[in-house]
Specification:
Helix content is 35%, strand content 13%. With 223 residues, it is α/β, with parallel strands linked by helices.
Length: 223
């Protein structure tokens, strides 16, 4: 299981103690984030964040498959229109079933680009602790704590800072390892990807819900 450091400090937030925005990390290559398509868990209204379950069950619904294929077509259009030639495309995906399926459906629509799909625990769903396998209505409880900058440690919910720490570290390393003209795509989960985006927007990880919510199979380019 992917390990995170549970000791968050103010210096690791993208806004300083005086509220000033800090300099976001700089990417060398074009990088996109894609949330997974509609999953069976979405249809059933369940939170599924336990890797022991999510890596093997609760894959995409039929609607989710079509959403992932459409996302692949949309991404292909973006890359085809790019002024910079694309030499390779690497899809880095969470190892949950719903994200793996999304990544492979994306890849199927990206021919003739040379595509590689690789999975990682670094992009897994945010750990929702005691809320796992309960109603998605509990997301609102977690997000209220986030907005108040309250770490809900008693319920075992992963803090926004810990989520961002693991996700940003992975993205920056993938960007560093990418070759000239390579495009990186990161397929993950709603909270994980929005929290990741806060780093590149120069805002606190705790304020991830101030960003427009990522729709299922939505494609966004990181700034």
């Amino acid at each position: 299981m992917y390990e995170t450091d549970s000791k968050a400090t103010m210096s690791q937030q993208p806004t300083g103690a005086d509220g000033q925005r800090q300099q976001p990390p700089r990417l060398k290559h074009r990088c996109f984030i894609v949330r997974h398509g509609q999953s069976i868990a979405n249809v059933q209204g369940l939170i599924v964040s336990d890797p022991a379950v999510g890596c093997h069950d609760f894959g995409l619904s039929e609607v989710g498959v079509e959403q992932a294929l459409e996302a692949g077509r949309a991404l292909k259009t973006l890359l085809t229109q790019s002024a910079t030639p694309v030499t390779a495309l690497t899809i880095h995906t969470s190892d949950f079933l719903r994200t793996l399926q999304t990544a492979h459906h994306l890849a199927s629509e990206l021919v003739p680009f040379p595509v590689t799909v690789t999975s990682t625990p670094a992009l897994r769903e945010r750990a929702f602790g005691d809320y796992n396998h309960t109603s998605v209505a509990h997301y609102n409880d977690v997000w209220a704590h986030d907005a108040a900058r309250v770490c809900d440690a008693q319920t075992g919910v992963e803090s926004p800072e810990d989520v961002r720490r693991r996700a940003v570290a992975f993205v920056m390393q993938a960007d560093e390892d990418a070759g000239e003209g390579e495009v990186c795509v990161f397929v993950g989960h709603g909270d994980t990807l929005q929290i990741l985006q806060t780093a590149f927007e120069g805002i606190s990880a705790w304020d991830h819900r101030t960003l427009p919510p990522l729709g299922t199979a939505e494609v966004r380019e990181l700034p």
